[in-house]
Design a protein that fits this description.
By secondary structure, the chain is of the alpha/beta class. The protein is built from 17 helices and 15 strands. A seven-stranded mixed sheet has the order 1-7-6-5-4-2-3, with helices on both faces. Mean pLDDT is 92; it is low at 1-11.
Length: 497
């Protein structure tokens, strides 16, 4: 692999100013320039937009909904304002090079796998990887080698992947790359420094799905960023925890990355829209500016809100505020509350809080509610949360006897996800599917962690797990029949080149 990185020269570095927003400024200028538009999009800066849409969003936003005009640069070959904005982001986030994404972290993960894995290669990854990683396996033709994350003491919440698990996988399976999820949905980070050393000893790249850790670079009380810990590539959803618009994300590379930069750039072009939204791209520039100028204060404020909420919630009888084992790198702005002691499942509590009490969580599970506290939250938001949980406690129900619902045992794939995806398939009753090869990507959502995926044998344990999730109020996605009465299996595998 060729070494990455186009790093900034000292002259370029000195020319850049964190107070600048080059892409945002260029978009503002283009949006307000008087001219007759004979280019896409068809609404022509809002002049032809639906009145209903204009009533919801106003008209100004559509003036800036512009395509790749000459003064707005080109996302796939940036030489002007996009390149300057990306270089400023690389400085702010402490990376060697940064690319903007308008298709979310999903396309960043897919591009990273396409850049490192060829058909038939093995990719080591945790079972709690997001479904976009499985899509990346289908696109690339790589074979998954799954490692199990450690679990908390109750066996309910996945923690990070241990260096020991990665070392064993590397010993047993020649691989092209290692992909980790750090932090997890619950804010837990793996020991990335130790894992990076193991992976690099074998001259392999380490890719980190850091979708939920975009804010880590801006306060010392957060876990170390993936790039600072030695990862070759990290993908961050800037929209999840910072001030960018939904679907706006970034890919960061290490200055001495083992990734093939040219192949990564080509892969990004494969999975991104050829008409990226400049509204999303400019929001990345603005979010970077906000954090570069005022990030530490904003994150200190966010940590203070999270600590206050954790303390107040811990005072409510029957409520257990979750914390990981001592010494585990952890994001304190991710708040997970066990409501089962109040007689509520997480699913029922989430519905009641949302529908009746005006409090909406990020992720319900059988026992817990997980909430994201970010720079956009206020003290009043947190008061509403505490009051909502207090109301649940006042409406305390009979104690629940809930199953722990550990994930089903890992299965050795029979076919690659790509081969299973393209094979002939048929639908059968769920009882007849046991022992057959799955042709669907089936997972409870959120957080989108697959339980069955194309190429794996269907087991009794997997069906029982998914059925129990449905019974307790969860949602199953990815399957043709969300009631799980039927499943789609591989009827005849086809040979792929």
């Amino acid at each position: 692999m060729t070494p990455v990185a186009r790093s900034l020269s000292m002259a370029q570095f000195n020319h850049l100013d964190a107070h600048q927003t080059p892409l945002l400024d260029a978009l503002r200028a283009a949006a307000t320039r008087p001219h007759a538009p004979f280019y896409t999009p068809g609404h022509k800066q809002g002049q032809g937009i639906s009145p209903r849409l204009a009533a919801l969003f106003g008209t100004e936003v559509f003036r800036a909904d512009l395509p790749e005009l000459p003064d707005l640069d080109n996302l796939f070959a940036p030489e002007g304002v996009i390149r300057a904005a990306q270089d400023l982001a690389a400085i702010a986030f402490g990376t060697g090079e940064t690319w903007f994404l308008a298709n979310g972290s999903t396309c960043g993960i897919q591009a990273a796998v396409l850049a490192t894995c060829s058909p038939g290669d093995s990719l080591i990854l945790p079972r709690n990887a997001h479904r976009c990683a499985i899509a990346a396996l289908i696109l690339s033709g790589a074979m998954p080698v799954f490692v199990s994350p450690e679990l908390d003491s109750q066996g309910q919440i996945p923690l990070g992947v241990s260096p020991t698990a990665i070392a064993q996988a590397l010993e047993q399976h020649p691989a092209a790359a290692v992909l980790l999820v750090s932090p997890t949905y619950h804010g837990v980070s793996s020991d990335l420094q130790a894992i990076a050393a193991l992976v690099h000893d074998r001259h392999l790249p380490l890719i980190v799905d850091e979708a939920h850790g975009a804010h880590f670079a801006f306060h010392p009380q957060f876990p170390q960023t993936a790039i600072a810990a030695g990862a070759d590539l990290a993908v961050q959803s800037i929209h999840k925890t910072l001030g960018a618009m939904t679907q706006a994300a970034m890919v960061h590379s290490h200055l001495h990355s083992r990734m093939d930069r040219d192949r990564l750039v080509d892969s990004l072009a494969l999975v991104q829209s050829s008409s990226p939204s400049y509204l999303l791209l400019a929001s990345l520039d603005a979010a970077r500016h906000q954090m570069a100028i005022d990030g530490e204060r904003l994150m200190a404020q966010t940590l203070d809100l999270a600590d206050w909420a954790r303390l107040e919630l811990s005072k409510i009888p029957g409520v257990r505020v979750w914390t990981p084992p001592t010494g585990t790198p952890w994001d304190r702005t991710r708040l997970t509350v066990d409501v089962s002691g109040l007689g509520w499942t997480g699913f029922a509590a989430d519905e009641h809080l949302h529908q009746t009490l005006g409090v909406t969580a990020e992720l319900p599970s059988l026992h817990h509610l997980t909430l994201i506290i970010s720079l956009g939250n206020t003290r009043e938001d947190l008061r509403h949360l505490v009051q909502g949980i207090q109301t649940l406690a006042q409406d305390k129900r009979s104690p629940l006897s809930l199953p722990s619902l550990p994930l089903p045992p890992l299965q050795v794939p029979i076919l690659s996800p790509r081969q299973a995806f393209f094979s002939r398939r048929r639908t059968v009753p769920a009882s007849d599917a046991i022992g057959q090869v799955c042709a669907e990507l089936i997972c409870p959502y959120p957080p989108g962690i697959p339980v069955l995926m194309p190429g794996e044998p269907i087991t009794i344990e997997a069906i029982a797990y998914l059925t129990q999730i449905c019974t307790m109020g969860g949602t199953i996605t990815g399957c043709a029949d969300p009631t799980l009465q039927t499943l789609t299996i591989v009827e005849e595998a086809i040979a792929l080149p």
